[in-house]
Write the structure tokens for this entry.
Amino acid sequence: MFFALIGILLGLAIGLMLPYTYNTTYSLYISVAILACLDSVFGGIKANLEDKFDTSIFISGFFGNAVLAAFLAYVGDRLGVPLYYAAIFTFGGRLFENFASIRRILLKKRKERKNKQ
Amino acid sequence: MNKTKKPNLIILIFSLLLGIFMAGQLKQNIPILAPVTLRSIQTSKNEINSVKEEIEDLKSLTFKRNEQLKILESIASGDENIINILNEELKNSKIAAGFEKVEGPGIIIKMEDNLSEGAFGQEYDLDLIHDIDVLRIINDLRGAGAEAIDINGQRVLAISEIKCGGPIIRVNGRSVGAPFYISAIGDPKLLNAAINAPNTYAYALRTIDQLNIETTVKDRIVIPGYNGRFNYLYSKPSKEGD
């Protein structure tokens, strides 16, 4: 949990310092992809807390979901159907689910620690 | 631990990557968060086009103004005769105001009362052409882009009245009787459509009231100028604050 937070903050700092930018046209796709990545990271944290973390699943999910989300947004844009909503709903919903699981696990651990004391 | 040795490290690395992506998105400084759809692209394209057209118009306007400026400068330096130029301008102004005879392609509309025995309605009123009929047809013609209109030789200007005068109608203060010949200069196709297309006012007059309305398209129609005198009594040019 804290590793992810630290990572995101560090990444933000690095990204803001790096001089690279991309075309504004792609910002919609990238934003959907970021949502997918965020979901993957939350999923990874949850799996880690449950001791079920698998690197290959995590990495493939991280990139695969991002690419799929961006692709969906792009295809939707071409077809005139806002398909990126699908990505937003799925990943947004899962984000909250994952967060709920993480919360529960952390609270449980805390309770156990208190009981030990 | 199972397969993975340092899940925290991997999560850290990928969060780092995510943060870098997010920073890239932040740096875009997107003013509107609404996604760009094809429709919004289309509307902004249209806006750009209209602005471009406006720029073109303004450019041509500056070009014209520059030419005028050149003429005025040549007058100031004494190259051209000022009387000639003023005469030319006077002529142009007269044409624009409708005081000059003009010619061009257009249509002639003949409007005649319903002369048949079995008249429509029970009242004679419905078989006759009224001032309002003529007015509405003229309005249709103007809507179709007519540049010059006359009724039986009376030029119709912005100041012309078309009023009922019993068995006749009055145009420009003169009496005009049926049959009415309305000539209009403009795009003959458009003018013809304004009169003959279904559900126009003339169409209703022809089919329901059974008035005789005939149109002829001509390549050359001569329309006389306004032959009255006109002076503004009450209106004065209003000075715009500059």
In short: The longest helix of chain A spans residues 84-116. DSSP finds four helices and no strands in chain A. The radius of gyration of chain A is 17 Å. Chain A has one domain: 26-116.
